[in-house]
Amino acid sequence: MEKRRFVRLNKMIEVACKEIIDKYANPVIPPSVLYTQNISGGGLLLFSPKYMEKDTRLEFTIVLPDNKRGIDAVGKVLGSSEYNVEGIKQYRIKVNFTEINENDRDRLIKYILREDIRVNRNKKK
Questions:
Q1: Does 81 reside within a domain?
Q2: Is 95 inside any structural domain?
Q3: Is 30 within the bounds of a domain?
Q4: Domain residue limits at 32
Q5: CB distance 52 to 80 below 8 Å
Q6: What values do phi and psi take at 116, rounded to 5?
Q7: How far is CA 16 from CA 30, 35, 86, in A?
Q8: What is the DSSP letter of 31?
Q9: CA 48 → CA 68, 81, 82, distances in Å?
Q10: pTM of the model
């Protein structure tokens, strides 16, 4: 049985994402805007039109709906899986955070817990 360290929230959240080549993401290339399928304090699952190789490093900003300041992080792709939406090939990209400010991780976890409570409360109604 898999044990998770963090609560996972199933919600689409905007993420501005860039691939890291060598040590840094190219500042000239604009980030891709992707969306999460789910997110936790340890990583996220992204929807993407593009396949990403395992171990690809990504730099991203997570745009939480209840906060004006994004959360910057670096992550590593753990794997990609293909799926089709109305005949259009898409990918689910599993990413583990490798660099995230602990205050930002705390903000993310608090947001996830608040949303989880809100969603569960609405299910009981």
A1: yes
A2: yes
A3: yes
A4: 14-124
A5: yes
A6: -60, -45
A7: 9, 9, 25
A8: P
A9: 24, 10, 10
A10: 0.85
